[in-house]
């Protein structure tokens, strides 16, 4: 480029000098920027090495056996989650049913759980009465509202809520329903350069990786000539094997999937492992996820008592760092922490939450400040149980099938990531040998670090949404 400059061709030495000076200045600036970025990168690495992770100061006798946030995370992540993902995928496409987990006695109950709340009355007298009630209405009462019972595989989407550039359930669903938008609304959207899609409401927005078997959503339109079978077909064709419309029906105009709901049912499937290496606990070898007996739990309590008698094992001693920058005391404590838990103990911890309206702000994550205090944090748990079972697998005999722990939670509502934090914290407390009221006491904690980090989303599934009074006899785990 320099040889083509008119000044240089004409023999103008000063102009050439200016150009070369500018090039040198640019090179110097770039070099300084590179050195600065290298220096900042080195400082960041040093800060990361020197970073001190804050832990909640538990004061009970189990504090030395309780996992840290990092230990909880590692314990949760090192699991065969692909088998849980495969199971949920088979549930969505209809190859499996939850009765495979909980027995054939639940088959009829699960089939009847496809909720019909809000459907238009079917009898002739009821239809006549309903028509008379609405024929004089105007505005929104003239529109048609359709309810969709939706099933989808969470591992195939980036969560429910529509976001630019992401493959979300809401985005895919609204795209499939574009043909049912009325002409007036379609024209308005085109003028605003927006896609011709309806706005879909939902009973509960699920996070990335969370599946749903009977999610309830709805949309409205002023278009009259719509067949529910056409809606079902369009939804089922948009992403086969990943999302499926179970039932589509007309509902009353005042139906809302979220505000009309009285309870939600979630299921969390946690894979158990037998092949993890044994961990020495007070000269005893315990394999991971062993279902502990009462004698084992009593021995865990003995370990806690012995730790309390040794001042050198206090948490304050974790600050004594050796020449390699690691705490010998912390390593010793990590080796003494149990790496197994009792499913029955998790069940006992969970059952203490039933029938109580409590503030679950300590068990939520990523919530707005306005929803972190007061009534907005209160939830009523109708049902909270855990049981061990086996995943179905056509290619494995019973001895080789995956053992899992299933946790069923039913509440009037759930806070963000509340189910996953409850599950991970219950597992942590069960492993530490805490008493049955450990989760209740954590409600009074002053910091969310008192609870464990959220369990992986792969195990969570929204089973159904209820619009009638809750009946405990219809639960999956009794």
TrEMBL record:
Listed GO molecular functions? pseudouridine synthase activity; RNA binding; tRNA pseudouridine(38-40) synthase activity
Task: Please list the reactions this protein catalyses.
Answer: uridine(38/39/40) in tRNA = pseudouridine(38/39/40) in tRNA
The residue range of the signal peptide is: none
Query: What keyword terms does UniProt attach to this protein?
Result: Isomerase, tRNA processing
Asked if the record carries the keyword Isomerase, the reply is: yes
One Pfam assignment: PseudoU_synth_1
Going by the record, the broad EC class of this enzyme is isomerase
SUPFAM superfamilies associated with the record: Pseudouridine synthase (SSF55120)
Q: Which InterPro entries match?
A: PsdUridine_synth_cat_dom_sf, PsdUridine_synth_TruA, PsdUridine_synth_TruA_a/b_dom, PsdUridine_synth_TruA_C, TruA/RsuA/RluB/E/F_N
* Claim: Isomerase is one of the keywords in the record: yes
Q: Which residues form the Pseudouridine synthase I TruA alpha/beta domain?
A: 384-468
Instruction: State its Enzyme Commission number(s).
Output: 5.4.99.12
Taxonomically, which superkingdom?
A: Eukaryota
Q: Which GO terms describe its biological process?
A: tRNA pseudouridine synthesis
Question: Which family would the database say this protein is a member of?
Answer: Belongs to the tRNA pseudouridine synthase TruA family.
Instruction: Tell me what this protein is called.
Output: tRNA pseudouridine synthase
Q: Which organism is it from?
A: Zostera marina
